[in-house]
Structures are given as structure tokens and as C-alpha cells.
Amino acid sequence: MAIHAVIMAGGRGERLWPFSKPDRPKQLHAFGTGKSLIRSTYERLAGMTDSSRIYVVTGEDIAAGIREHLPELPAENILLEPVGRNTAPCIAYAALHISRKDPDGVMAVFPADHLVGKPERFHEAIGFGIGCLARRPGLLITLGLVPDHPETGYGYIAPGEALEGAGGLELRRVLAFREKPDGEKAREYIAQGCLWNAGMFIWRVGAILEAFRKHLPVMYGQAMAMVSGGEITPGGVSAFYSAVEPVSIDYGIMEKASDAGVIPAEFGWDDIGSWDALGKALPSDEAGNTCRGEVVVEDSRGNVVWATGKKIALIGVNDLVVVEGEDAILVCPRNRSQDVGRLAKKLK
Amino acid sequence: MAIHAVIMAGGRGERLWPFSKPDRPKQLHAFGTGKSLIRSTYERLAGMTDSSRIYVVTGEDIAAGIREHLPELPAENILLEPVGRNTAPCIAYAALHISRKDPDGVMAVFPADHLVGKPERFHEAIGFGIGCLARRPGLLITLGLVPDHPETGYGYIAPGEALEGAGGLELRRVLAFREKPDGEKAREYIAQGCLWNAGMFIWRVGAILEAFRKHLPVMYGQAMAMVSGGEITPGGVSAFYSAVEPVSIDYGIMEKASDAGVIPAEFGWDDIGSWDALGKALPSDEAGNTCRGEVVVEDSRGNVVWATGKKIALIGVNDLVVVEGEDAILVCPRNRSQDVGRLAKKLK
Asked: Which residue of B has its CA nearest to A331?
């Protein structure tokens, strides 16, 4: 039962503007960690399976950057999406691709743009999930991160009864998926023991295709039409992406699946979805400033400062984001970080 | 009685870092007004006297920029200071230079780096001062700006009895010069009718040299030694600047002079001594933001934003200074603008 690992790398990371740009998005940056996020994600997965079974689904504009960062990835393992259509079409495309090679394989799906502080714990959770699939082949498993604060930027998963356990990990039934909450709701979810939905999945490729057939039959039919003469054709991919509805895998499949499981996990995960999150994820100085590049800080606390060319000097400011990109400079309070994506879209 | 106008242009404008730099200081920038400050100052004075009687005292590193901005100024009218030694030596040097050409001339002294919104009122005040000197040849006159707020960044002048008046202007005796006050003291000064000391003076060249002889006799002797064979020699200038004590004209002469007068004046003066002052001096948008260059402002009020190359985007910040210079970016609250000079010195 070989593992096929799919990296969804189509995101634009607009909330990390102006550092993240359309042709150089978040996943191609290192954010001070030494390796780009896509490279780190790839290496984490390469510890688990052969590079011939690692796939990256991404847009054409980002593909060149991805190839540069992952030179050992076989060219045919980069699956190009002509246009982004949310996660369900992306996963259908990858599942179909994998099922042509290995209909009995296990498919694991990960976003490209997160940090994992404890990769050994990450590998343990995936290994445990694969073990569960041996016994429950129809199960659709998601990883649920144990929250450490009432984050409003993520969806939540409510776990139900324990199905099995081993080595400190357990598999629990999914009671419900919850949309991104407001602050009060987030605190409630945490009190209820809900987990963060990090968009990481493990299932048998046959099981997910079966779930598409059952819960998204139109999309399933459109996806199947990509295959012609036993092969997925470029024309088939184009036709699929121009016809398919943008639907998330959570909404389209996971919420409807009767056999969904969640593995609560802690592996130092951070999606660094915003400058504020980045400031929390990376080390800061004794005044709580997270700085990269040539930064001079006077009488200033809790700032996230990212200098890429010019020197940045702060005097007497607190809890700000100050980022110098190639073409633009952003200044906003950390608690307005979530608004950066909207501005970046507007400026585009 | 010809007028000789001296522009003191040796300042570094460090409080306007990072836009103002050692070799490209404040006076060589336009700050959105269309003409550099030195050019505006020059043109204002050229409306009053011939360019052969306008002088600029400055440092060697700035001189090239000054010549570029004032191509019609005779080369010999740029008086080079080997090193800055505050205003008294600068004025002694210029006075000696002028007295060689025109011992009976009137000398008027101005800083290079201020805005004058109403030049006709400025000319009236100078004209009135020159008239006063015809009747009171020994008088040392300073212009006192009528304050519109309790500024702590300027010194103050306490005016005494009225000596004469004409055309809405009057000459008053100087009671005292006051150092830069704190906020409470500044409010007190304003209640007492004190005026801002803007460093603008009018006197007969013979009167100021006589005042040097009387109040700063050592400096007077050192200055006189610049002349050799009837000429001021480069070696004499070097020797003077390496020997002379740095003293301000206010402290060294004006505070001691028994015959000092002040003309209260209002001519839309602003010294734009800081980014905050610049924000007050220039037009702002309806949210009180003073912006130059490509600036995007969302939900932000009262900021001074200066973009010189990159786009600057603000979200949800108020009363900040955000300035992009050639090599550096500054972020500080407007009310910390006065601290910028100290930082600029430290970074140098």
C-alpha cells in the first residue's frame, strides 16, 4: 500500500502581501526559516515516500518557481491547474491521476504553505492514519490540530467517539465541520474540544473517488471525462477546469461523508496565514519584535518588521506590521493583518 | 544703502531623515512644494536685492548641490565653511566678507530651510526693518514670528516697548531671548505675547561687526585674522574655523546686545523642522493624511506618508510618519518626530 502525497500549492498568499506576490507567492518564500515553505513541505513528505509519488498541484504562473525549488521532483508530478477552482476539483484531479498509476494506493493531501515545528510528530500522525486505513479502507481521515488559542482564521472540527488508538494517537469520528467562527464562537469551540481544520487529509484513492461519485456526482463525471484513451489529456484538464464548479473538499465531501475520521494531532503546526501569525511563529527579541533584514528598533514593542532591501527604522511604535516588498511597503496594526489580502486583491 | 542677503545653508536637516541625507540635506529638497527650499529662499531674496548681493554660507559637501539649484548665483558668493561651528562664526565670516565690499551695507540673514507662505508680507517686514535701520543704525533687528501654537521646538523672544511703527508693522525692543521651552512654558510664553525666534536678522554690517568686537572679542579677533593683504584668504578661513568656538548668534550676541529690536511678523512661516511640521505645513486629504508619491490609505487618519519609489499602503493606522528614503524606511508616531534627528545621527 504505497503512499502518494499531494501538495496543494495553488494559493496566492495575498494576506502576506507585499512580500508574497502573484508570481512569487507565499509557498516560495522561506520567511526566515532557511527553506521555502514548499521545499520544507516536500522534504517532510520525502521522509515518508519516494519522490516519484509526491505530486504538486499548482497554477502555471507558479510552476516555474516550484520546479526551481523542487528540482528532484519528476516533471510529470507537477499537475497544472489552468485556473484555481478551490480544493475539491484539485483533489479530484490528483486522485484521478494517482488512481491511473496505483488504484489501491493511499493518498495524503497537504497544503504547501505551513510550518511544522515537530516533523517526527507529523510523521507519526500520518503513519497512524495509514494504519487506520488498513483496517477501515473506506474511511476519509483528516488531521485536526489541537488549538492553542481561539483563532478566528481557521475552520474547526468537532470530534466524536474514539474509533481506535495507538502510541498516544487516536482516531475519532467527525461529528461536524465548523466554518471560521467569530471570537466568542471560537472560545466555545475550544471549550468543546474542537480541533483546527488544517486541510490535511489521508484516504485510499479509491475511497475518495467513490466519495466524489456519491457526494459530487456532477464533478465526478466531469473529472472522469479528463481521461481519453486511458490517459488524462491536457485538453481533458482544460475542459474540466472550465466546466467545474469551485467547491471546497470540506463542504463538497467531508461534511457529507458518513465515514469521516479525525486524528487529533500536535506537531508545531502554523499556517502563517498572516503577518501576525508569522510574528507568532518565528522567534522574537526581548521586546517581542520579530524582525528580518536590516531593522533598527527604538522604544518599540511587539512589531513584525520585514526589511528586504532598505533599512527599516521604528521609533516608539507597538504591535505594527511593517513590511518592505519589492514594489511596496505595508504598514498596519498586527490585528488588522487579516485585511491585507483584501487590499492586495484590490491593488492587483 | 544696499541690502546684502545671507542664506545660512549649512544645516543637515537630520530630523527629516531618511529623506534628508548628509550630502542631500533638507534645503535641497522641495517637499512637494515644486521648488527646493534653498531655491525658494533664493528667489524670495532675489525679489529684494541683486543676485550679486546674495550669499550662501554652507559646507563643502553640500556646495555642489547648492550651485546646481542656484546656477545664477556668482561662484564667489558661496562662502564655504570647512566645518559647521554654529551661527555666530558663520555670521562673522559673512559679515566680514560683505564689509570688504560694502562697509555701509545692510546685512540680512536667513536660514535656508523654511517655507514662507506669504512672500509679500515677508518683503514688507524686511523693508520695514531696513527703514528702521536708517533711523537707528546701531540696532540689531530680529524678526519674531507670531505663534499659532505652543511649539516646543523653537526658541521664543519676549518683546518690550514699541520703538516705532508703520503700515501695520512695529519695531519693539527685545526684553529677552528664551530657550526652547517645555509644553507648559510654551503656553506661558504665548500668553505673555512672546514670539518665535526664526533665526532671521537685519542689521548694518558695521553694527554687527561692532557687536562681535564688544560681545565676542576673541571670535572677533579670530575673524579679523582671516584677512591678509586686504583679502579674506582660504588659509585664513581654515584657521578661523579650526580655532573658533561654536556659539550661536542668539547666545553670543543678541542676548547681550543693549540695542536689539524685534519686528513681530506673520508671513505663513514654517520651518518644517520635522515630519510632523511638514504634515502641518502641506495640504492634507479629508482624513488629515499628508501624502506624497504612490500612497494607498485605508481606514487611516492624520498620517504623514512620503513614498519615493515603492508604493506605501497603510491600513488602520493613525498619526504616524511613514517615510521611504533612498536607503531606509522610517516609521514613528508624529509626536516622536523630534527623535528622528537623534536616530539619524546614531545611524550615521
From this structure: B314
Phi, psi of B306 (to 5 degrees): -125, 105
Dihedrals phi, psi of A29, to nearest 5 degrees: -105, 155
Contact at CB, A330 and B343, closer than 8 angstroms? no
DSSP secondary-structure letter at B115? E
Calpha distance A290→A181 (Å, rounded): 27
What per-residue confidence (pLDDT) applies to A113?
A: 83
Instruction: Determine, for residues A314 and B298 on separate chains, whether the beta-carbon distance falls below 8 Å.
Output: no
For each of the domains in chain B, give its residue range(s) and CATH number, in order of start. 3-270 (3.90.550.10), 275-347 (no CATH)
Ranges in chain A, pLDDT < 70: none
ipTM given for this complex = 0.80
Do residues B96 and B223 lie in contact, with contact meaning Cβ atoms separated by under 8 Å?
Answer: yes
Q: Do A317 and B298 touch (CB under 8 A)?
A: no
Question: Per the CB < 8 Å rule, is A327 touching B316?
Answer: no
**C-beta separation of B200 from B261 below 8 A:** no
B345 at the A interface (CB within 8 A)?
no
SS3 content of chain B, % helix, strand, coil (to 5): 35, 30, 35
Full-prediction pTM beyond 0.95?
A: no
Contact at 8 Å (CB) between B94 and B107? yes
